[in-house]
Amino acid sequence: MVVLRKLPGMPGWPAALGLRLPQKFLFLLFLSGLLTLCFGALFLLPDSSRFKRLFLPRRATASASSSSSASSSSASSSSTRDTDLPRSPPAAAEPRHASPAAPRRLREKLRTAARMAGPPARTAPGSRQQVQGGESRAQPASAAPPARETRAPFRFDYERFRRSLRHPVRGGRSGEDPETRARRMKIKEMMKFAWDNYKQYALGKNELRPLTKNGHIGNMFGGLRGATVIDALDTLYIMELEEEFQEAKQWVEKSFDLNVNGEASLFEVNIRYIGGLLATYYLTGEEVFKSKALELGEKLLPAFNTPTGIPRGVINLGSGMSWSWGWASAGSSILAEFGTLHLEFLHLSELSGNPVFAEKVRNIRRVLSRVEKPQGLYPNFLSPVTGSWVQHHVSIGGLGDSFYEYLIKSWLMSDKKDSEAKKMYDDALEAIEKHLVKKSAGGLTYIAEWRGGILDHKMGHLACFSGGMIALGAQHSTGDRRQRHMELAAEITSTCHESYTRSDTKLGPEAFRFDAGSEATATRLSERYYILRPEVVESYMYLWRLTHQPKYRHWGWEVVQALEKYCRVEAGFSGIRDVYTTTPTHDNMQQSFFLAETLKYLYLLFCEDDVLSLEDWVFNTEAHPLPINHTDLRAAGQP
Ligand code: DMJ
């Protein structure tokens, strides 16, 4: 130590004090104790960061205070666009470019935690978890200590939002013919039947098993229960099934438990639970739906702790551990999964005032816009570690589908301001038209799949949503392009209709092919089933609203009749194992998306256009309506 160094020509100063060896030792011990005490005191003072800043490099203090998932990463905030929701920082928030100094960051974190509406999420003990592979750590924002903030917490202005809508959510009930009304009422009766049986035999389980009259839990939702309740809420509300809606709401209030500890699909939890809760909040203004959505949203955040920020597909909702699906090649994440979060996550930020959700999905967008696209196409498997494609399999059906849907809907939901999303959609559709759209020998237009440049002449039932999506996008093109896309949308929808009419039950198979002499029919036994899927009636609904050609209502009514004939059983609706026989066996499963999507789209097909108007709402991929951002003045405190 410098102070004890013996200076030339001078005796050492302990020696100068005339101390002997044991005394010198005691003196040194005392001195070093004193120094340690002084140094430690710096960290015991109430606002130690101020002192730490004097001694530690600035970088160290900043990074020490930015580890929480609730604070924004500098990389993410650099991409903040003023086109997405939320457009303005909440009134109570300090600017995000504020000094990175520790006290300010700490206060921001506390404020962020306070802003989250509803009760704070309870976290499992020791919830600070190492993400698989040791890549990063996450601590849910809900684990932050109670806020000392005195300013008013962020509050979403629901009344202002309702005033921004152009149509009443359940429509204005203008003139309609009696047949249309009767058909709509029939679909409402089907919904009531599906709900009543679920309630009687399976309330609180995820789905109803209508043959055995019991519930099914499954392993997609990580211990969450009530998938059918959450998926059905907004459909019950829209259909004015008031009593049933109250039953569902009561279950959410009293029995919907988010403190679960199981492995969930990030995608499924997002589209069904978060989407269903958000939509029901926007429709009703009931706080319980918002607070549950936000609480659940926080539990999904650790899935994004990967080197690229591309989330993994599976997350343990209790521990925050995440990993990739075992079946996904080389630990990859799936395009249709990480590409189908944007709509819901922007609304989570909008409602909470917490930008973290929006930043997560903007980062996904950034990774995707940068990666090289083979022939302009987006393959289905991407590594969350390197950000590169793992396999060149492209599909507008399963594994790819809703990624494209969320591009065009992000643009629509931003009130046409998110031009990056529109460009990505336009470019992707151009590549699809060029490489995947084909015409069969019999003149049917279809969208093939692509495996490293080789075409697979097959369309899945899932791919049939694309008729509706392309028609929706075409509304905003002009001239030739608009006409070409409307024709393409109509042709694809017609092909999907053919896949229904060519079966004995008038319901479509899981996949149909255009090879070896087959035209829009399943050629493999394993592809002959129908599990109450919505995609074909979804396209009928869009095409009806956008063209008003009566054939779409006729086709929809054919589906209603077929469902009644082949899928309705004593205690609910069931999928069937073979659409090519008039005596099909049932799969004993009433899927939650039957209530969320199939029945909702059928009902809307027979409604006036102002019920959940396309001018006010976009439907998430589970048919949960999310509002278009007509104004950026929703946040309380904005002028
Ligand atoms: C739904 O859960 C959603 O539509 C999803 O995007 C894909 N498939 C099912 C219904 O078929």
Q: What does this 3D model show about the protein?
A:
By secondary structure, the protein is mainly alpha-helical. 45% of the residues lie in helices and 9% in strands. It has 22 helices and 21 strands. The strands form nine sheets. Strands 5-6-7 form a three-stranded antiparallel β-sheet. Strand 3 and strand 4 form a beta hairpin. Helix 14 packs antiparallel against helix 15, helix 18 (466-474) packs parallel to helix 20 and helix 20 packs parallel to helix 22. It is globular and about 105 Å long. It starts with 12 loop residues before the first helix and ends in a 12-residue tail after the last strand. The model is unreliable at 1-18, 38-147 and 633-639 (pLDDT under 50). 1-deoxymannojirimycin binds next to helix 22.
Search tags:
639 residues; mainly alpha; 3-stranded antiparallel beta sheet; 21 strands; 45% helix; 9% strand; disordered N terminus; disordered C terminus; binds 1-deoxymannojirimycin
